[in-house]
Task: structure prediction
Amino acid sequence: MKLHLLTACTRPENIARLGESIDAARRPGADLIWHLKQDGERKHVGGQAIKNALIDRVADGWLTFLDDDNLL
Result:
């Protein structure tokens, strides 16, 4: 099973902790694929345009959004 995690990042200080939570959640047989795109200039409030662009990267499997201030 593929699960794509889509994150539009406007808070780069949260990336390391978020990545650690994803690594801790990995289970045998589940393929977690993290798609991360940073918006360092915070041009896109809420990251909606970035999230839409990330959806285009997913060809198969399930997808979910994981904000940069959440943990998996």
Summary: The chain has a mean pLDDT of 87.
